[in-house]
Write the structure tokens for this entry.
Amino acid sequence: MTETVVSTAKSPPGPAVSVPVSTRPRGDEGQPRPRAAGGRLRALDGLRLLAALMVAFYHYGGRGGEVSRAWGSSPQDQFPTLHAWFAYGPLGVQIFFVISGFVICMSGWGRPLRSFFASRAARLMPAYWVAVVLVTAVFALPAVAYAAVTPSEALLNLTLLQEPLGAHRVLGVDWTLWVEIRFYALFALCIVLPGATRRRVILFCAVWTLAAAVAHAADEPFLSLVLMPQYAPFFIGGMGIYLLYRDRRDALAWGIVAVSWLTGQHHAVAGLWHPSGPGQFSYRSAAVIVAVVTLGFLAVLAIALGLLDRADWRWLTVAGALTYPFYLVHEHLGWVVIGVLHQEFGLPSWLTLALTVGAMLGLAWLMNRYVENRMTPWLRGVLSRTR
């Protein structure tokens, strides 16, 4: 979840996406495609923030664990009805991945490898570094005293390699960044390095779909690590949707999106559904899981086909800019805010939830303005000049 849709994913946030000349809808031979381009995809920014809020509501009220300590009791007690709906929040991650597939395909089209690498690193790292330092510092405060990582692990977290190296994570959400990085690597090697074309993207999508299914069947750790069978359909679906953005009459792209949706909903149900039981925090309906995944695909598809072009409000640009830093800091720092507002100040659950979301959005705004807006262009420039 990391593409700035308007500068991701992700997937990660910034100004609305103005389509560069090199990525405007054209055929592989340079002939214009039917879909006009050059506008802003502000609706995609709004969708990204919506996906981030889904994840936040899950972390605040749709699960047990550490957040129960922040509330003083289980979120089931705090939100007797809403907790069951908040439990569907993890599906916001799958929506992020669809958006990331779309945006990475757009931003990587016609871009040299060095520029692609510089763009991705500059987009991800500045806000991530600040989030790691901030959460580490806050969790180490005596008044907070949540479980803190060791100094060595905190330093390792700055590399974003803590997942494969088996260290404790500072940010609970950073596992999704490790998924994104693996997608970036596959896309860079198979598409950016040889040069993006429609045929190459279609072949990449087809081979990855089949290889991911084989990896799932083989249950071989290395293949699963590289090919990510449970998440591949969402990235592939996003790439297929980008091909439809270039040409809505592309039958093969429609096929890629359809197969990705079919396999993606299966993986989502397999990952989130479980039988109901007294020991379970909440019960998720398979039908609702499929519906949320479907709506995510349809929303990105509607944006790509121009059906939401009228959603061109400027505030959506701000929403997109806040999404990535909000996503990074909302979980762990949100626990601290919930504990202060609900247990120390005695505010009701609904007001605590609203104020916590607002506080995290405010922090995200500060990070975007004073960290991302200053460090991202600088880091991109440094990396672009490096030889």
